[in-house]
Each structure stands twice: as C-alpha cells, then as structure tokens.
Amino acid sequence: MFFTLPDNDSLYIALLGRDPNYDGRVFVGVRSTGVFCRLTCPARKPKRENCTFYESPSECIDAGFRPCKRCHPMHAMVLDDPAVRDLLTRLDNDPTYRWSEDKVSALGYDLSTIRRTFKRTFGITFLDLARARRLQAGFTVLSNGDRVIDAQLEAGFESGAAFRTAFAKMVGVKPSAFSDTALLRADWFQTELGPMVAVADNTHLHLLEFADRKALPAELSRLQKAAGGIGFGTTEPLDRTKAELTDYFDGQRATFTVPLALHGTTFTKSVWQALMAVRAGQIQTYAGLAQKIGRPTATRAVARANGANQISILIPCHRVIGADGNLTGYGGGLWRKRKLIDLELQYK
Fold this sequence. Notes:
The chain has 3 domains: about 5-70, DNA Methylphosphotriester Repair Domain (3-Layer(aba) Sandwich), CATH 3.40.10.10; about 135-250, no CATH class; about 265-345, Arc Repressor Mutant, subunit A (Orthogonal Bundle), CATH 1.10.10.10. About 40% of the residues lie in helices and about 10% in strands. The chain has 14 helices and 10 strands. The protein has helices at about 10-15, 55-60, 80-95, 100-105, 110-120, 125-145, 150-155, 160-170, 215-225, 235-250, 265-275, 285-290, 300-305, 335-345, and strands at about 25-30, 35-40, 50-55, 65, 185-190, 195-200, 205-210, 230, 285, 320. Helix 6 runs antiparallel to helix 7 (about 150-155) and helix 12 packs across helix 13. The longest helix is centred in the middle third of the chain and has 18 residues, at about 125-145.
C-alpha cells in the first residue's frame, strides 16, 4: 500500500472527472456490470451505489470482477513486460479460450517465468486466472436456469465431461446432481471480498461461503444429502441476503434480518448464537465466548464450533481473535478477516 486512499465520495468524483492522478493507483469495481476499470476509463460512468474502489487489480479479481475491455486495467500493473501484456491481451480478447501449459509454451514463453511473474504481480497464476474466468461464466449460465451444454459452451470447455470435472472441483457437486424440483436453491454472486455461494429454501438461509473456501465442497455435499438435492436459482432469503450484504459493505447496515437455518449440535448452535450477539465493531476471544455460553473450560470446543460455521459474515466468526490479540484462522482467509474487522470499525 503506497498511499492512503481518499474517501469513496472523493474517489467517485475522481472517477467522474477521469482524474489521471489516480491512474494505476486506484481501480473501481462496478457491480451492475461485473467489471473493474481504471478511473480514467472512457466508458459511461456508473452510478455511485454500484461502485467499489480498490488499490490493485488483484483485489478486484479477488472480489470477482473481470477486467474492462476498454481501459485494460490489469495492464497498469505489468509496466513494460511484453509477455504478460501479450497474455493479458489474449485473455481479454477471448476469456473463454481454454489455456494450457502447452499453449503458453507454444507462444515461446518460459512456463516458470510466466508463473512467477503472474503470481508476484497479481497473486494468481495465468492459468488459474483463465480458469476462473471460464468457470464464473459457466456458473452464471447455470444460475439462469439454462442447460449444462449451454454452460459448457459459455465457459469455453471442449467437452461436457471437462466442464463437469472443473465444476465439481470448484464446488464439490456436478451440474447433473442439481435438481429442478429441489427445495434448496444455490446462487453465486459477487461481493467486495470475492464471489460467494449461498444456499437457501423459501424461508431460511442454509449456507453462505466464499467460493474459494476449502470446506465448501464438503458443506454443499452434506446439504445436498440432507435435503435430497439442491437446485439452481433464487429465493426470497437469497435475494434478501444479497441486498443486505450490499448495504453492509456500503456501510449502511450493521445487522442482518435474514432467517438462518443452523445445522449443528446443541453446543455448536449455542456458540453461533453467542457469535451473533457480538456486535459489529467489537471483537471477542474464544475464551470469552466460552464464558458467555457458560462453558469456561471449553475453549477448544468453541474454536472448533467457530470453524464449523457455514454462514459467513451473518454469523460473524471473523470477530473472534486469539487470546494474544492476533488474528487466528479464518476459512475465508486472514486477509478477508482483517478487511471485515476494518470495515466494521465504522459501526462502533
């Protein structure tokens, strides 16, 4: 971080004026389009409520935005590296192209050099970046109720088997396993901290996780078995979850009203209830939570229950820190935990 970001209102004014002083230093993610841009982008300017500002393209990628094809924001970070610039241009021109190591090598590039450069610059390899773009496109098609073959084509996979394998690796459930008549519905949407997967029925939210959380496949599998199937689509609790999370990240909401379905033992549910009693802007320790539920010697069990939470943010396990004041494990990544805690300081 090379400088302190101005407030969002000032950045929005800079966006409207295409202020060159921020070019390559600040980027804007636009919720209504799913793209991120330089502040000098010549495209039509979005509404203020659809804008989120970031310090780097890598943060925009983490948040689930794809780069704008008009201003090529990722190029702002590669300086004069012709190899990286060439690969980014090729990806921008055809984001559904199925890249492989052989295809990168065929262009005359050294694989280890490309891997290190992309990882160092963007925090993600080129092949992972290309794969994420294809998978996200495919999931969007499925969420709209279209056929698996349509999702396969949208994602740029060469065969249905290839798409199913990649999809299964990402979420742990093949597209063919999703049912049109299931009570539970799954949806995918973007937040400031990256794409999230949510599952709900017509009355309650059952799961809310960051799409890259390692425990997501197992959690989806358990839900599918317990409910007898999961379908794609949306429900009122899913719509409310997305709306309230938008308000939360915009600094307009500190609490949530979405009804939650808690899948756990009596003990774990008591821990989650205690977590929801910790207000935004406050932090708690595992030992403190154990005291609150009347189990002062159960600190480790409380920590395990905290880690078993499958409704991120709404059950705020990110508000728990170690006894020494340091951040401890968080399924969504410690960088997200820090950003959530920092975000909630405005609610104190």
